[in-house]
Amino acid sequence: MKVKCPTCKKEVVWNNNPNRPFCSERCKLIDLGAWADGSNSVPTDPSPSSEEDVPQKPAPENDPED
After folding, report:
1. pLDDT given at position 58
2. Least crowded by CB within 10 Å, which of 6, 16, 20, 28?
């Protein structure tokens, strides 16, 4: 099976390729660098910007029989 290298788009054989899905160690390192510097990222929901946005747990109620 042949796939395209995600970095340079060159066609590369998938089977017995130690760098798959990349065509070479160079393309693998270019991709790693993009993740490291923030160029690549996985989108997520924004986190709450303040403590007011975070739901609070109710305080435990005191049992009068204690």
Report:
1. 73
2. 16
